[in-house]
Design goal:
By secondary structure, the chain is an all-alpha fold. The chain folds into 2 domains: 1-97, no CATH class; 98-259. Helix content is 69%, strand content 0%. The chain is globular and about 65 Å long. The mean pLDDT is 91. Bound molecules: zinc ion. The site of zinc ion has 8 residues, from loops.
Length: 259
C-alpha cells in the first residue's frame, strides 16, 4: 500500500519536474533565467495561464495548440513530461523512498534535460551537467549503496570520461570529423559518478545504440558526416544501467567466471 502511494507520488512529481525541464530546455540555450517569470508561448509571448500549464493534460485538452494564438506546441513537451513521470515512478518502485532515490531522480532528470537540449541545440550545457556530476560524486561516495571501496565512484567517472575522450580523439584521427564533443565527455563523467561500475554496461549500450542509429541513417542515404548528437544515446545507456545495471554486471561476472 505504501509502495503504491510512493510510486504514484513519484510519478506525479515526475510530471511536474518534466514540465520544469521543458522550461529549462527552452530557456537555458537562450540565456533566460529559469527561476523567474511565468511560462509564455514562444510564438505570441502570451503568458500561459495556470490552468493551461498542467503537465500532459493541458497539451491534450488544447490539442497541441496555444490558446491565445493557435500556434502549434511541440509534441516534445508532453513527451518529456510523460517520460519523466514514468521514469520517476519506475525508480521509486525499484529503490523505495530514500536518499539514494533522491540522487537517482536528480540523475534521471539531468539525463532527460541534456538529451532534450543536445537533440535541439547540439550542446550539453556545463551549467547543467557539471553541478549534477559534483552532486553525484559527493552523494554516491557518502551513501556508497553497493558497499564497495568508496573510491570506485570517482574512478568510474574519471575512467568513463577518459574513455570517451580517447574514443573521440581516435574517431577524429580516423574520420577527420568531430565524433564526440567535450559535452559527451562531461556526461560520461557524471554517468560514472552516479553509476559506479555499472557505467561499463551503460557506455556499451550507448555505443551499440548510437552505432545502430548511424547504420539506419546511412541506409536512408544520410551522409555519414552528418553529426548525430551522441548525448541521447549515452543517456539511454545510463537509464538502462540505472534500472538493471547490477543484474547485467552479475550476469557478466557469472558468465566470465564460469567460462
Ligand atoms: Zn501563442
Amino acid at each position: 500500500m505504501l509502495d503504491a502511494y510512493v510510486i504514484v507520488v513519484a510519478g506525479v512529481f515526475g510530471l511536474l519536474i518534466g514540465s520544469f525541464l521543458n522550461a529549462c530546455a527552452y530557456r537555458l540555450p537562450l540565456g533566460i533565467s529559469v527561476a523567474h517569470g511565468r511560462s509564455f508561448c514562444p510564438a505570441c509571448k502570451t503568458q500561459i495561464r495556470a490552468v493551461d500549464n498542467i503537465p500532459l493534460l493541458s497539451w491534450i485538452v488544447l490539442r497541441g495548440r496555444c490558446r491565445a494564438c493557435g500556434a502549434p506546441i511541440s509534441w516534445r513537451y508532453p513527451l518529456v513530461e510523460a517520460l519523466t513521470g514514468m521514469l520517476f515512478a519506475a525508480m521509486a518502485a525499484l529503490t523505495g523512498p530514500s536518499a539514494l532515490l533522491a540522487l537517482q531522480l536528480l540523475f534521471v532528470a539531468a539525463l532527460i534535460l541534456v538529451s532534450d537540449i543536445d537533440i535541439a541545440e547540439r550542446i550539453i550545457p556545463d551549467v547543467v551537467i557539471l553541478p549534477v556530476a559534483a552532486i553525484g560524486l559527493v552523494g554516491m561516495t557518502v551513501l556508497d549503496p553497493r558497499g564497495g571501496p568508496r573510491w570506485t565512484w570517482l574512478a568510474a567517472g574519471l575512467g568513463a570520461a577518459g574513455f570517451l575522450l580517447g574514443t573521440g580523439l581516435v574517431y577524429k584521427r580516423l574520420r577527420g570529423v568531430e565524433g564526440m564533443g567535450m559535452g559527451d565527455v562531461k556526461l560520461a563523467l557524471a554517468m560514472g559518478f552516479f553509476l559506479g561500475a555499472a557505467v561499463i554496461p551503460a557506455l556499451f549500450i550507448g555505443f551499440i545504440a548510437g552505432a545502430l542509429a548511424g547504420i539506419v541513417l546511412l541506409a536512408r542515404g544520410r551522409s555519414a558526416k552528418t553529426a548525430v548528437p551522441f548525448g541521447p544515446f549515452l543517456a539511454f545507456g545510463a537509464l538502462v544501467a540505472l534500472i538493471c545495471g547490477n543484474q547485467i554486471l552479475h550476469l557478466y561476472l557469472h558468465v566470465a567466471l564460469h567460462s
